[in-house]
Amino acid sequence: MITFSVEINTIHVYNIDSEDLFAELEMEKEMALRNIREYGDDVLAKECRAVKEITPRVKELVDDMLDTMYEANGVGLAAPQVGVLKRIVVIDVSPEGDQPLIMINPEILETDGEQTGYEGCLSLPGKSGVVTRPNYVKAKATDIDGTEYIVEGEELLARAICHELDHLDGHMYVEKVEGDLVDNEDLVAQQEKEHEEAAD
Ligand code: NI
Q1: Which of 3, 33, 81, 184 has the smallest set of CB atoms within 10 Å of its CB?
Q2: Where is pLDDT greater, at 191 or 105?
Q3: What is the pLDDT of residue 195?
Q4: pTM for this prediction
Q5: What is the 24 CA–ligand 1 centroid distance (Å)?
Q6: Nearest 10 degrees: CA dihedral of 153, 177, 75, 53?
């Protein structure tokens, strides 16, 4: 009697589980976007806490951060920008947007050189400002599988690493801007004009 009941239960549970699992896998393929906090929001001025363990919740956060960054056409996003005070950033400076860099508990080890150029932030949409950053950065971080790795970057990647890591300590690029913030529309118009003048 007991054996019979166990068998029935086993078959029954198995069938339901496989259907649920299928539904769950379908769900996971859908994008999950999080709200991007804007400049002035308190959460952007706070120190983030180290990630102690890469839990399913942390993995979900990273997935959502990548979806949110790509959807907003950004090259980087830090966890506080989606309201989570954890030391996590995602970066992708590749032209195709297919080389995500996931940095958990990142730390800059070395910097070298200097670059001065326009920089923007998804938390300050439509604006840019001139910021001087190191031209080379060597950093260490933990990836989504818990493996520690070293990354070296120049130019845009170096800039993105510095910009995103600043967010983890409650800092925004506006604190470092040389001169005034400009509207991206004006910047594009100005660059087009310079381009035309250079072509003449
Ligand atoms: Ni930013």
Answers
A1: 3
A2: 105
A3: 87
A4: 0.83
A5: 32
A6: 80
Q: For the chain, first and last CA: distance in Å?
A: 93
Extract the tokens encoding 163: 């910009």
CB atoms within 10 A of CB 157: 21
Could you list the residue range(s) of the whole structural domain that residue 163 is in? 34-116+132-179
E strand residue ranges, the chain: 76-78, 88-91, 101-112, 115-119, 127-133, 136-142, 148-154, 178-183
Annotation says 178 is catalytic = no
Between the CA of 58 and the centroid of ligand 1 the distance, in Å, is 20
* Residue 198 belongs to some domain of the structure: no
- What's the CATH code of the domain at 109? 3.90.45.10
Among the listed residues 30, 60, 154, 164, the single catalytic one is 164
Calpha distance 80→47 (Å, rounded): 9
Q: Assign residue 8 a region (left: φ > 0; alpha: ψ between -120 and 50; beta: otherwise).
A: alpha
